[in-house]
């Protein structure tokens, strides 16, 4: 097929304006105040500003955002505790007290598709006295004197074996609810309607919607503590 190519160059004038957009991401004082006032962060740490601007912003945050105790303006090179959890308290442990602790490993919960999540954590119970040595910034926990009245009931006990939990659950249901319970092959059957068994590191409650299910669930949860 015969073809022919023609090349032609044309100049097309642009009938539009060209503007400069600053994408630096910086905000003026009024914008910063508006952002902080709307976000209301729990803690504010002010860095990278002149001394006058830093102090002005610190006063604004202390007055309208998060309070005097939750705003910091550290000097260059000063370390700041930036933990987001405000319920953490730092204490020092007496050497003898730390050596006397008996930790119990709490395994992780079972993951999806029957897998196991990695991790877990260790917990220990202690009965001690809180002291604040002169000139110290961190309070110290020391061993309670012999014979001192401690906590009558511990917040948690050693993690019992699954079989022990089933025995205790069986005893509670028989005595408190007069339920007929049968413990066999690592599973507890209650009134022929509800089954409690172990699956990995979890306790599984099986059964239909009935009175026994709600009662057994309540007693089972009572045997566990949130650590």
Provide a quick synopsis of the model.
This protein is of the alpha+beta class and 227 residues long. 26% of the residues lie in helices and 18% in strands.
Key words describing this protein structure:
5 helices; 3-stranded mixed β-sheet; alpha+beta; single chain; 4-stranded antiparallel β-sheet; 227 residues; flat
Describe this structure in words.
This protein has 227 residues and is an alpha+beta fold. The chain has five helices and eleven strands; from the N terminus they run H-E-H-E-E-H-E-E-E-E-H-E-E-E-E-H. The strands form four sheets. It has a four-stranded antiparallel sheet, with helices on one face. The chain has a three-stranded mixed sheet with strand order 3-7-6. Strand 6 and strand 7 form a beta hairpin.
**Amount of helix:** 25-40%
- Binned strand content: 15-25%
Distance between the first and last residues' Cα: 85 Å
The total count of strands amounts to 11
Mean pLDDT: 78
Judging from the principal axes of the Cα atoms, what is the shape? flat
Topology:
Layout: H1 29-39, E1 44-45, H2 51-65, E2 71-72, E3 92-93, H3 95-100, E4 104-106, E5 121-123, E6 128-131, E7 140-143, H4 162-177, E8 181-184, E9 187-190, E10 194-199, E11 202-207, H5 211-222
Parallel strand pairs: 1-2, 3-7
Antiparallel strand pairs: 4-5, 6-7, 8-9, 9-10, 10-11
